[in-house]
Amino acid sequence: MHIPERLLLGPGPSMIAPRVMRAMASPVLSHLDPDLMTMMDDVRARLARLFQAPDDALTIAMSGTGTSGMEAMIANLVSDGTRVLVVTTGYFGDRLADICRRYGATITHVSAEWGRAIDPAAVKSALRSSGTKGIEIVAAVHAETSTGVLNPIEDIATAAREHGALMLVDAVTSLGGHPLDADGWGLDAVYSCTQKCVGAPSGMSPVLWSARARAKKEPCRSFYLDLDLLEAYWLQRKYHHTLSSTMIYALHEALTMIEEEGLEARWERHRRNHLTLAKGLEAMGLSLLPPESERLWTLNAVKVPPGVDEAAVRRALLTKYSIEIGAGLGPLAGKIWRVGLMGASSSPSSILIFLGALEHVLRDAGHACPPGAGVAAAAAAG
Ligand SMILES: Cc1ncc(COP(=O)(O)O)c(C=O)c1O
Question: What is the pTM of this model?
Answer without folding.
Answer: 0.98
